[in-house]
From TrEMBL:
Protein name: Gas vesicle protein
Origin species: Streptomyces sp. NBC_01393
Localization, UniProt: Gas vesicle
Keyword annotations from UniProtKB, A to Z: Gas vesicle
GO MF, any single term: structural molecule activity
GO cellular component term, pick one: vesicle membrane
Length: 79
């Protein structure tokens, strides 16, 4: 069984310029999960611990925004 030549497998990929907007478009098309932890401590004693998680995806016709359907206006006249 012969596989790819080891010297060709270790060659670097050619340089490609990718615009930031293209990178964001690709990431948001599939979805991005951001996670983080914040710990506030004094004298090595943890006082507050916050775990943060956010799911960020693009809005499309297949995946509409939950805020797209507008609610009736508040505080207006009742006519």
């Amino acid at each position: 069984m012969t596989g790819p030549d080891r010297s060709t497998a270790l060659e670097p990929l050619p340089d490609r310029q990718v615009a930031l907007i293209d990178l964001l478009d690709r990431l948001l098309a599939g979805g991005v999960v951001l996670t983080g932890d914040v710990v506030l401590s004094v004298a090595d004693i943890d006082l507050v611990r916050i775990s943060l998680r956010a799911l960020i995806v693009s809005v499309s016709a297949e995946n509409p925004s939950p805020w797209e359907q507008s609610a009736p206006p508040r505080g207006g006249d009742d006519s």
